[in-house]
Amino acid sequence: MSPIPESRITRARILALAQALGFQNIGIADIELAQAEQRLADWLRAGFHGAMDYMERHGSKRGRPAELVPGTVSVISARMDYLPESRARMWQRLEDPDSAYISRYALGRDYHKLLRKRLQQLAERIADDIGPYGYRVFTDSAPVLEKPLAAQAGLGWIGKHTNLIDRKAGSFFFLGEIYTDLRLPPDAEATAHCGSCTACLDICPTTAIVAPYRLDARRCISYLTIEWRGSIPLEFREALGNRVYGCDDCQLVCPWNRYAQPTQEPGFLPRHGLDTAGLIELFGWDEAEFLRKTEGSAIRRIGHECWLRNLAVGLGNAPTGPEVRAALAARAGHPSALVREHVAWALERQGGF
């Protein structure tokens, strides 16, 4: 991209275009990320990324936008809310040990595809206003420091649980970026408002938030059920409870999420009854049914094997009963050694065959 010396579009105009596409807010950041880059280096050095080797790739491009996309001088950060139901209903499902709790961001369509398409449309509508310019769009799809950029763009602050929080909207939202060669006046960085609150640290089932603003992903239920492909460590299995894909606890307990608004995006609403499904029901899906009912969903990326692994742990934590034992026994001879191991653990918890 060749830098354009002056902005030819206002922030207000970009916001209006974004809101017409379903975004709730946008902010503009410069590309100075030295402090965030150092924090990432410290986090990686501590080994907190676990098996997420991709966090170490790409050298300095993650913290230096102009190296990832030459010519970048500004970043437009955009927010889209995804909360599909009330927090009270979420707590109700989480506290029902027979239900399969799936992180609410994953109940609908895959946000990667939806946001990327909308960001592309936003970038094109800007071009309709001002003419051709250089840009690339990203949604959790490249070495991009999304949360630090969003914080610099004024969309919120990074809370003690390491998620971005907005004073008026909580934290149940997705982020996306447009890297651009437009010189846009940056917004003021958001100030932090966690204060002395430690609710997110206190509630974390696996104590993955090892200190304020410091997450050890290796202990995080989202990491263990989504990113990790091996055997779930024994020390964490009971703590997983009925959480079979991700974890929302630290967001659910955050006081600022009393301001979180229900999503206005139909694509983020639950599909296939995943918001109310039981552990036994989902454990009964064969691979064909899993692939059919997770088509277009972020859940599909973990594959059927890890899906069964996670559900087996959930069933091991469920109230003891003949239906649970029968469901587990039906998978005791599964071709996957990973599934068989977790089923055996769950059966032992349930008192055997």
Summary, kept brief:
The chain is α+β, with helices and mostly antiparallel strands and 353 residues long. It has helices spanning 11-20, 34-45, 65-68, 87-94, 111-130, 146-152, 199-203, 221-227, 234-240, 249-252, 279-283, 287-293, 303-317, 322-329, 337-349, and strands at 25-29, 74-81, 101-102, 135-138, 157-158, 164-165, 173-180, 209-211, 214-215, 243-245.
Characterization of this structure:
By secondary structure, the chain is an alpha+beta fold. The protein folds into 2 domains: 146 residues, no CATH class; 151 residues, no CATH class. A 4-stranded antiparallel beta sheet has the order 1-2-7-4, sandwiched between helices. A two-stranded parallel sheet has the order 3-10. A hairpin with a 5-residue loop joins strand 5 and strand 6. The chain is elongated, with a radius of gyration of 21 Å. The N terminus is likely disordered.
Instruction: Give the N-to-C terminal Cα separation.
Output: 64 Å
Q: How many structural domains does the protein architecture include?
A: 2
- Give the number of DSSP strands: 10
Structural class: alpha+beta
Helix count equals 15
Low-confidence stretches: 2-6
Query: Nearest-angstrom radius of gyration?
Result: 21 Å
Question: Overall pLDDT, averaged?
Answer: 96
- Helix and strand pattern: HEHHEHEHEHEEEHEEHHEHHHHHH
Spatial order of the strands in the main sheet? 1-2-7-4
Q: Characterize the largest beta sheet: strand count, sense, and whether it forms a barrel.
A: 4 strands, antiparallel
Task: Give the DSSP E fraction (strand runs of 2 or more residues).
Answer: 5-15%
Outline type: elongated
Share in helix = 25-40%
